[in-house]
Automatic annotation (TrEMBL), chains A, B:
<dbReference type="GO" id="GO:0045892">
    <property type="term" value="P:negative regulation of DNA-templated transcription"/>
</dbReference>
<dbReference type="GO" id="GO:0000976">
    <property type="term" value="F:transcription cis-regulatory region binding"/>
</dbReference>
<dbReference type="GO" id="GO:1900376">
    <property type="term" value="P:regulation of secondary metabolite biosynthetic process"/>
</dbReference>
<dbReference type="InterPro" id="IPR036388">
    <property type="entry name" value="WH-like_DNA-bd_sf"/>
</dbReference>
<dbReference type="Pfam" id="PF01475">
    <property type="entry name" value="FUR"/>
</dbReference>
<dbReference type="GO" id="GO:0003700">
    <property type="term" value="F:DNA-binding transcription factor activity"/>
</dbReference>
<dbReference type="GO" id="GO:0008270">
    <property type="term" value="F:zinc ion binding"/>
</dbReference>
<feature type="binding site">
    <location>
        <position position="86"/>
    </location>
    <ligand>
        <name>Zn(2+)</name>
    </ligand>
</feature>
<feature type="binding site">
    <location>
        <position position="89"/>
    </location>
    <ligand>
        <name>Zn(2+)</name>
    </ligand>
</feature>
<keyword id="KW-0862">Zinc</keyword>
<protein>
    <submittedName>
        <fullName>Fur family ferric uptake transcriptional regulator</fullName>
    </submittedName>
</protein>
<dbReference type="InterPro" id="IPR036390">
    <property type="entry name" value="WH_DNA-bd_sf"/>
</dbReference>
<feature type="binding site">
    <location>
        <position position="123"/>
    </location>
    <ligand>
        <name>Zn(2+)</name>
    </ligand>
</feature>
<feature type="binding site">
    <location>
        <position position="120"/>
    </location>
    <ligand>
        <name>Zn(2+)</name>
    </ligand>
</feature>
<keyword id="KW-0479">Metal-binding</keyword>
<dbReference type="InterPro" id="IPR002481">
    <property type="entry name" value="FUR"/>
</dbReference>
Length: 124, 124
DNA sequence: ATCTTTAATGCAATTTTGTCGCATTTGTTA
DNA sequence: TAACAAATGCGACAAAATTGCATTAAAGAT
């Protein structure tokens, strides 16, 4: 199942690169100045996550947000970092701070989803 | 707006105490052997969260899970702890490990939602 | 340049999760 | 026991995300 390049994929990536923060499907759709179906955007985003191009954050509103992964991001943050959701400007960004944790014996961790909520530097 | 005691509230609390882990509305409904409306359970859960009896966790499936808060739990975990979702048995539990983090200057944190996903001790 | 294969898309319907308005019921207190 | 307001049931609704299916269009082969 080889991937193909399509205008939609390029547009989605472009939007996320420009924004420099995590975005939800509907926010992405609003920024793309093309008429692309909702379901298609979801499929593109899911494929990017599968391929490691994006990573998915689930905020405490239950919505999925998507942000560039390391390999496609010029910043040096890794994927196991904290995310910060600002209550004022309602944006989600990747913090440079890594999540450090220990788990009790016999637990193994495959994935993490850590979101801090509060007021960001631009809104304080 | 003083709270009243109702059978529904008692039943919900009882289920959560017995389970000893975080549960979603539908899981709670299944465990309650009474015919209680979905919306009512949601309202009870939300009120409990307002009152600090429960705390709410949003897992990476986007669903809300509810667990007893400190004051009502005999365990000594505090509310700013990691949660662990097991991929095998699909349960969510509160880990004793506290979340420690630092944020960049001028950020203030009001709330956190941290869920680790993997295999729990019972399933490994 | 054209054909072929199959990934990608559009559309509509569906599922899931959670909330809300409103009439009715029921705790609680006087 | 009466009265007030919180709690409930019911139905409708909203938002987020997925899925089936027919159609379109990349990408490699001819």
């Amino acid at each position: 199942m080889k991937r193909r390049n399509t205008p939609t994929k390029e547009a989605v990536l472009e939007v996320l690169k420009t924004a420099g923060k995590a975005m939800s499907q509907d926010a992405i759709e609003q920024e793309i100045h093309m008429d692309i179906n909702r379901a298609t955007i979801y499929r593109v985003l899911n494929r990017f996550c599968e391929d490691g191009v994006l990573h998915r954050i689930v905020a405490d509103d239950g919505k999925q947000y998507f942000a560039l992964s390391d390999k496609n991001d010029n910043n040096k943050v890794s994927d196991n970092h904290f995310h910060f959701k600002c209550l004022a400007c309602d944006t989600i960004e990747c913090l440079p701070n890594k999540v450090s944790f220990t788990v009790p014996n016999a637990y193994s961790v495959a994935h993490m989803n850590c979101v801090l909520t509060g007021i960001c530097k631009d809104c304080s």
